[in-house]
């Protein structure tokens, strides 16, 4: 169940990051409300996941996969460029998350 909570937290993390861009410095009401709710949802579901997972594993996977999702959706939604260094960085994050999971035995 912890990994399901973590997956939900990652979705909230991505929504939070993308929503932050849409708030235009928290000057837009509804994007700001959405962003704050996404942040709260992400922290709440992360805390549920961390009941079972090691904090080092859970937090690293949350931020790493959240970052990857944000970059991919940022390219699709905001037309940001995905470059070779970004792709190599994604691969390093994914490899690191897998290695942490295997090392923790979770």
From TrEMBL:
<comment type="similarity">
    <text>Belongs to the drug/metabolite transporter (DMT) superfamily. Small multidrug resistance (SMR) (TC 2.A.7.1) family.</text>
</comment>
<keyword id="KW-1133">Transmembrane helix</keyword>
<feature type="transmembrane region" description="Helical">
    <location>
        <begin position="29"/>
        <end position="50"/>
    </location>
</feature>
<feature type="transmembrane region" description="Helical">
    <location>
        <begin position="84"/>
        <end position="104"/>
    </location>
</feature>
<dbReference type="InterPro" id="IPR000390">
    <property type="entry name" value="Small_drug/metabolite_transptr"/>
</dbReference>
<keyword id="KW-1003">Cell membrane</keyword>
<protein>
    <submittedName>
        <fullName>Multidrug efflux SMR transporter</fullName>
    </submittedName>
</protein>
<feature type="transmembrane region" description="Helical">
    <location>
        <begin position="57"/>
        <end position="78"/>
    </location>
</feature>
<keyword id="KW-0813">Transport</keyword>
<dbReference type="Pfam" id="PF00893">
    <property type="entry name" value="Multi_Drug_Res"/>
</dbReference>
<keyword id="KW-0472">Membrane</keyword>
<dbReference type="InterPro" id="IPR037185">
    <property type="entry name" value="EmrE-like"/>
</dbReference>
<keyword id="KW-0812">Transmembrane</keyword>
<dbReference type="InterPro" id="IPR045324">
    <property type="entry name" value="Small_multidrug_res"/>
</dbReference>
């Amino acid at each position: 169940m912890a990994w399901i909570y973590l997956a939900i937290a990652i979705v909230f993390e991505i929504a939070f990051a993308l929503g932050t861009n849409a708030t235009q410095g928290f000057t837009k009401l509804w994007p700001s409300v959405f962003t704050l709710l996404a942040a709260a949802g992400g922290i709440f579901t992360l805390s549920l996941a961390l009941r079972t997972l090691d904090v080092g594993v859970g937090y690293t996977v949350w931020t790493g996969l959240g970052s990857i999702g944000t970059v991919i959706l940022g390219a699709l939604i905001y037309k940001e460029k995905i470059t070779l260094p970004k792709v190599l960085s994604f691969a390093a994050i994914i490899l690191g998350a897998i290695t942490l999971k295997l090392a923790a035995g979770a």
